[in-house]
Amino acid sequence: MNRFLDQDIMYLKGVGQVRAQLLASELNIRTVADLLHCFPFRHEDRTQVYRVCDLREGMQNIQLRGRIVDFSTMGEGAKRRLMATFTDGTGFITLVWFRNLRNIERMYRMGVDYQVFGEPKVFQHGFSMAHPEMEEMEVVRNRPLLRMQPVYHLTEKLTAKAITSRTINALVANAFEKIRSLPETLSPDIVAAHRLVSHEQAIRDIHFSQSAEAVTLARRRLKFEELFYLQLSILQYARNRRTETLGWSFPKVGEYFLKFYGEVLPFQLTAAQKRVIKEIHADLQSGRQMNRLLQGDVGSGKTIVAALIALLAIDNGFQACIMAPTEILAEQHYAGLAAQLQAIGVRVELLTGSVKGKRRQEVLEALRMGDVQILVGTHALIEPGVEFRNLGLAVIDEQHRFGVKQRAKLWEKNVRPPHVLVMTATPIPRTLAMTVYGDLDVSIINELPPGRKPITTRHYSRIARDRIQAGVVAELKRGRQVYIVYPLIQENEKLDLKALEEGYADTVRAYPEWRVGKIHGKMKPAEKEAAMRDFAQGETQILVSTTVIEVGVNVPNASVMIIENAERFGLAQLHQLRGRVGRGAEQSYCILVTKENLAETTRERMQIMVETNDGFRIAEADLKFRGPGDLEGTAQSGLPFRLQVASIVGDSTLMSETREAAARIVEADPQETLPQYRILWNRLRQLKEDLTNYSDIS
Ligand code: ADP
Ligand code: MG
Fold this sequence. Notes:
By secondary structure, this protein is an alpha/beta fold. It is built from 26 helices and 22 strands. It starts with a helix and ends with a helix. Residues 302-303, 397-398, 552 line the site of magnesium ion.
């Protein structure tokens, strides 16, 4: 391997111990290779310098040249800010700093020529620029001009230590002084067929380029590489599973299944449910391991399908497990299944993080002995200490964060991997599905149980509270129940919790004749469970909640879903939340409550919810509105590798292209022995190793 590339970043010219530590902790840069792979996320054309008199509202980052003529400060303590009046002779703007004031006061002086860079914002009668990047003109003049100035992801800590994009770029330049060549990472036929620039060219151009075209080509090459190896890994995995992985065979439709079907099942299955059960059953008898995705809109009845499949496993002498993303959902599945299945003598147990001590030991022991036939739980199920006697089937419910990696963990639970059924209500676009669930076969429940009335959705602004309340009271009087949901966004948990507590108090006040419960993620599991149970049993009629109820919760008597601050939710999430009602035969309602003045796109988002109940239409619209954001994060966490440059949503064309390329390789070289592709398989192995090492560290 290349010694220099693997060298500790500390020894690179310009780094040293202090910076090495910062680079490692802030950007995960430990070696020279890591540094080269720290790509700028965008480039700025720094040849253009604006005049203050030409500034207009809404401009992005721009450059100015001039001097500071005055400093002043405002506020005290943490609120203290430093301001500088800056002029280039055509007008004045205010530079503002909120953090790190002491260093800044020391660093910048009046009367010196500076080049400043930042986003101008309208401020009082002129413009201001917060925390601009500042450089003395003297330095600027003496530096070779790089037209496409790379902008790297930095953290506050780095900025405070005066490590800027320019610093990173200079370090990369220092590294390149010592690099004679960088090895190619794709096979020549792929490079040629897809018209890619070489790996080395791409790395050079992404950091140092004079032209936008070169940056584009570099980026395309780097994205291609990333996506190609992602696809290669998924397809390799899928091929191995298909050809090599023997699965348990469940030929028997036995007593448990038939008894449940005949005596316990309280309704007729829909045609779609019957069809998917057949599809799954065919897999289970094939002798190969099943990895199947079951898609079905909220309320389409996936749970019962899972239960019936689990019974097939038991009928054939195996254990089954059902895994849910949250404790609440796991508890609910457990409660539902235990009630139905104990009637026919099946032992169901629950295992989550909150099942502790003696109880946990009992469950684990019974599991090992094979006495537990169905184990319901959270991620806790795939932990190493959980041993099954004979696990034959794993059902993963509503889990978008359960990717190839996690599924592989399941495989270790038996001498042959269990069959895996992944259930999801989130329809995702095809290219994305191919990647995240790239190795799965797909079954779709495309029909809701009969007698469901489509949910009526309305959008109100907050001032219409009285009208909403009148509607709610009418439903409560009919004996129905009501959810009121407040957003919970991680970064601002405290504020959101406050909103929830206030909302709860308001609700108690507004509905004095009704009992109101509350539930949120910060409550103890037992409290959550109690709140959920009270609501499910009708002890409380109104449940004030955060999005913990988003997924899967099932209380058929609830007919009203009020979503507060609906503007803060994405469409997919709104749809999931709405799916909590409309589960019984009654007409149900979803009320979206927002502030009054909404951005145009937000208004449209609400409108779509009002117009349609179709999950697929909503998913499409969601992607259009929201952009890749969340979905990307969610999808990413299911992937075998992290993507750095490519976007699984935004680069769907390149995704298809790389998938085809990878498929050709997997087909042409099934044994992984062709000399011309050795480079690919080696690289793939390397990437996987890096990933393992990386997860050991973090
Ligand atoms: P999801 O697919 O969202 O997980 P669930 O499995 O929670 O949906 O089912 C929603 C509701 O529909 C449950 O109350 C369930 O008992 C009921 N249900 C499922 N299948 C049928 C059916 N074939 N006929 C009537 N009700 C059904
Ligand atoms: Mg469900």
